[in-house]
Design a protein that fits this description.
Elements lengths: L1 H34 L8 E18 L2 E14 L8 E9 L13 E8 L5 E9 L2 H45 L4 H21 L3 H27 L17 H34 L5 H29 L2 H9 L4 H8 L1 H30 L10
Antiparallel strand pairs: 1-2, 1-4, 2-3, 4-5
Length: 380
């Protein structure tokens, strides 16, 4: 018996080692592809060999001034007819690099070339920085870590993310084709919830309680948000940030709230359902009152961190705007009132959703766990 156990442990250990080895080989190939994929592009790509920097007169935009740097670059063409040919390029970069970029040795850029009457390169100019390999590296590291640590669960999570991206893309395409935005986003959100939780949790009581809890929590939150905004005639909410859109801003803002709140509530629903399920599994005879108290204690711990996370996620995107406006002598009160009112509103409504969803998810989880009839087709 002991020999069999040792043999099983050895087989499992060998399987895990092979799994890790295959993952590493796959991602080494992915890194190699990211570094040598120039041949897949029709646009001409050049790699920077050397850079000479010269400081020039500062530029001025209203109150702000920033130094400029002129770069003389030697590069080699990486693809196309003139592959391997060295060229000279020029680039001007600002201190902020808000509308430009500073090049260093090893960078790759898309270039435009002009030919003379002899069909040779007479001049070349930089169009954009080639960034795809950095994106491939980050994605590869993320996938590698989630598959090593999460294994099958990690694979399910990745599948869920890819599926949600596909659903979101389809919803946007439908909106652009003339479908009502609210209808498209509500359908997409329901699909997000149901498919994501089934993929991650499977078809069981935990998934069922998380799905119902998320749907109820999100619906109640959106209903409260719309009632408050409509009865108050949207006073204090400035939609000027969305003026660049050629669509009414209110429906788009509501859908932003829906999708942003949905993620937080789904996270809470899974956490609460898993915790309640584990407590019930360890003690099936536990009283409902004790289960509720345990769920509320867990919910209180989740509530503070999730509310902070949601607030930071929304407000952090406004930091560049806040810095620019303060540098131009705008008061902080004006910035908060006029420029980040939408972010603050999203954060507040999301926080309300987090608080509401905790008791909703607790009672939904307990209902599914305690209901014997449901157990006939959904095992806990």
């Amino acid at each position: 018996m002991k020999t069999n156990l040792n043999l099983l442990k050895k087989i499992k250990s060998n399987k895990f080692s092979i799994y890790i080895l295959l993952l590493l080989i796959f991602f080494l190939l992915l890194f190699y592809f990211g570094d040598r994929n120039e041949g897949l592009y029709k646009r001409t790509i050049a790699k920077v060999l050397s850079v000479s920097n010269t400081n020039v007169k500062s530029s001025s935009t209203n109150v702000l001034t920033e130094p400029l740097t002129k770069q003389k670059i030697t590069a080699v063409i990486m693809n196309g007819t003139f592959k391997g040919q060295k060229i000279s390029l020029e680039n001007t970069t600002s201190y902020s690099q808000a509308r430009d970029f500073k090049l260093t040795k090893g960078n790759e850029v898309f270039i435009s070339i002009k030919l003379n009457s002899k069909n040779k390169i007479s001049s070349a100019s930089i169009l954009d920085l080639k960034r795809d390999k950095y994106l491939i590296y980050i994605v590869a590291i993320f996938i590698l870590l989630i598959l090593i640590i999460g294994r099958l669960k990690g694979l399910k999570s990745l599948s869920s993310v890819l599926l949600n991206i596909a659903i979101f893309s389809i919803a946007i395409e439908l909106f652009m084709a003339g479908v009502n935005l609210v209808v498209a986003c509500i359908i997409a959100s329901v699909l997000f919830i149901v498919l994501s939780l089934i993929i991650v949790c499977g078809i069981n009581k935990k998934a069922a309680s998380a799905i119902i809890g998320t749907l109820l929590g999100t619906s109640i939150t959106m209903l409260i948000a719309m009632i408050v905004i409509l009865t108050n005639s949207a006073n204090g909410i400035h939609f000027e940030e969305l003026n660049f859109l050629n669509h009414p801003p209110k429906p788009i803002f509501y859908m932003e709230i829906l999708i942003g709140t949905l993620g937080a509530i789904m996270d809470i629903a899974v956490s609460i359902s898993s915790s309640i399920g584990e407590i019930f599994l360890q003690n099936p005879s536990i009283e409902t009152k004790s289960l509720i108290n345990s769920g509320m204690e867990i919910g209180k711990d989740i509530m503070g961190t999730m509310a902070n996370t949601l607030s930071f996620a929304y407000i952090s995107g406004s930091i560049p705007v806040i810095i620019v406006l303060m540098a131009n002598n705008f008061s902080l009160s004006n910035i908060v009132t006029l420029n980040i009112s939408l972010e603050i509103t999203r954060a507040l409504i999301g926080s309300i959703g987090i608080v509401i969803s905790i008791p909703v998810c607790i009672f939904t989880s307990i209902f599914f766990l305690k209901n014997k009839k449901i157990g006939g087709f959904m095992k806990s």
